[in-house]
Every structure is written in structure tokens, then in C-alpha cells.
Write a structure and sequence with these properties.
With 303 residues, this protein is of the alpha/beta class. An eight-stranded parallel β-barrel has the order 1-2-3-4-5-6-7-8, surrounded by six helices. It has 13 helices and eight strands. The N terminus is likely disordered.
């Protein structure tokens, strides 16, 4: 696997703690079969047991849910059964998809706090590897100081229930660049909070790969992979939600991205987050198999 073109100091991804392919996790929208923000909010139409079993058969080491999907699945199965389903299928990672109003006020904050309570309950009774937080894309921004205080509070509370918190830099949100994300995370990177980096938002956000590679060790706590066209297709919102590609089937320089996160000291698992009409049209089994295989190939091709 070649290092980033023009930057030989960025070494290829390689980790002696893993075999050729590190643990891969099927992020919620990869297997959910639903499009974010499309129609009434609700859980995945695909049963959680079916998704867990399909993910395991494909080779994944974990799976994600969002808040409403978690609630529906707990109502159907209960925490104990969900924990058993994960264990019986060998899935060690269980993540919960994003809260966007964790620093808001009023009704938005009330909904966020309700989601947080359900997530923390799941962390104690099922075991949750991490909770994903994002910025807001609908204009309810506050100062970085307020976000930093609220992020620190969220991390302290999550530590009490044994789960980590990762903050995603989303290029269309009010946490759209590395500087803002790092400012919000503050000192919590030394505890149980850290940065989530998704190749999509780095490419479409125009973040130089050298900035990613130069991040201090320990700041990155989670990494997500996907692919896309060389140039934006349609609006940035529609492309982000509908036109991501399976890894290796687009134009993103995934080897360079992997090399950069390795240079920044990342040695963890990887999420696979494909939001795509093409993937949604596949059967659950095919989507799980193809999304896993294409992501796994990024760690062995050309090595």
C-alpha cells in the first residue's frame, strides 16, 4: 500500500495488533435500509436480529443502531436478549448513532436528554462501545465554549456507564472543520472522549490529508470509511445521503486516508458507513456481504 502521493512521511496503514484486516463495524445506515430525514422518523424496517446475523455472516465485528431503532428493538426483545444476540453472533462492538442537540436548549435539549437516558441505560444493560455525537445542520449553533462544556459533561456522564463518546466532524454542520472539533473536544481526549473522522467529510470538506496525519496521538477515537465520486454529484446533502459508494468503487484515495490516520496514532477498529440508494436496493445479505468485502479489501490491496 503506497504512502500518500507527495508525502512520503505519511506511512502506510499497518498494525501489528491485527491481522491484515482490522475489526470492521457496520454503522447503522449501512444496513438499516432507510434514508436519514426521509419521511416520519422511525426505526429500521429491518429487524435487529436479522441485521446482527447478516453482519456476522459477512465478517463484521459489530453493528450500529440509532436512538429510535434502539428503542424499538428494546421494546421488541429487551436488553438481555439483545446482549445475547450480539454475543451469540460474536459481535463485540455495539455503537449508537448520533445525537445532534446535546448542546441545545429548550425542547430540542429535552429530546436529546431523553435519547441520552435510553443510550446510557443500554450501555449499562447491553454494553455500548461508543455513542456518536454530531454538530447541528439546521442553524441552532452555540459558541464553541458552550459546546466544549456540554461535551465534557456528556463524557463525564458516559464514563459512569462505561461507554465512550466520539464527536464527528461533519462538513455541513456547525462542527465542520478540525479546528472547531478539536476546540470542542478539549481535554476530554485524555479520558473517554475523542474525535470521529469519516473520510467523506474530510474529502468533501477539503481538509488537507497532512492535517489529519499531524493530529496528536489519542485524539482520534473512531474512523469511518466509504467512497464517493471524484467531484460532487448534485447537492452536498443529497450526495451525502444517497450517493456514497462502496469502498474502492469511487475516487476517494482511501489508502492515503488510512495512512494518515495511522500516522496520527490510530490503532482501533473501523466503521463502514455507506449511505447509498444502490445499497438500500440490495437485499440485507448482499448489502452486508458487499459492504464488508469492499472495505476489507482496502487493507490488503497492494500491501
Amino acid at each position: 500500500m503506497a504512502s500518500f502521493r507527495g508525502h512520503p512521511e505519511i506511512k502506510p496503514y499497518a498494525d501489528e495488533d491485527f491481522m491484515a484486516v482490522p475489526p470492521l463495524i457496520a454503522s447503522y445506515y449501512t444496513l438499516a435500509g432507510v434514508r436519514p430525514f426521509d419521511g416520519p422518523l422511525g426505526p429500521s424496517p429491518r429487524d435487529l436480529r436479522s441485521r446482527i446475523e447478516a453482519a456476522a455472516r459477512a465478517g463484521y465485528s459489530g453493528i450500529g443502531v440509532d436512538w429510535l431503532d434502539l428503542r424499538a428493538s428494546v421494546d421488541r426483545y429487551g436488553h438481555k436478549t439483545i446482549k445475547s444476540m450480539l454475543s451469540d453472533n460474536g459481535l463485540k462492538y455495539f455503537e449508537i448513532e448520533g445525537i445532534g442537540d446535546w448542546y441545545a436548549g429548550g425542547a430540542a435539549r429535552q429530546a436529546s436528554d431523553a435519547a441520552k437516558r435510553d443510550m446510557f441505560d443500554a450501555a449499562q444493560r447491553i454494553g455500548v462501545s461508543q455513542i456518536k455525537l454530531t454538530g447541528n445542520i439546521v442553524g441552532r449553533s452555540v459558541s464553541a465554549k458552550v459546546m466544549r462544556e456540554e461535551f465534557s459533561r456528556f463524557c463525564l456522564e458516559s464514563a459512569e456507564v462505561g461507554t465512550a463518546v466520539v464527536l464527528e466532524m461533519v462538513c455541513i454542520s456547525d462542527i465542520a472543520d478540525l479546528k472547531t472539533a478539536i476546540d470542542v473536544i478539549g481535554e476530554t481526549a485524555a479520558a473517554n472522549g475523542g474525535l470521529l473522522v469519516d473520510i467523506w467529510h474530510f474529502i468533501r470538506g477539503g481538509v488537507p490529508i497532512t492535517e489529519l496525519a499531524a493530529l496528536p496521538a489519542g485524539l482520534i477515537r473512531w474512523v469511518e470509511l466509504d467512497d464517493g465520486a471524484a467531484f460532487p454529484v448534485g447537492s452536498i446533502i443529497s450526495e451525502q445521503l444517497d450517493d456514497r459508494r462502496l469502498c474502492g468503487e469511487g475516487a476517494f484515495d482511501i489508502p492515503a486516508f488510512l495512512a494518515a490516520v495511522h500516522s496520527a496514532g490510530y490503532r482501533g477498529a473501523f466503521g463502514v458507513e455507506i449511505l447509498s440508494n444502490e445499497l438500500r436496493a440490495m437485499s440485507l445479505e448482499e448489502g452486508a456481504r458487499r459492504s464488508y468485502q469492499q472495505a476489507a479489501l482496502q487493507f490488503v490491496s497492494g500491501s
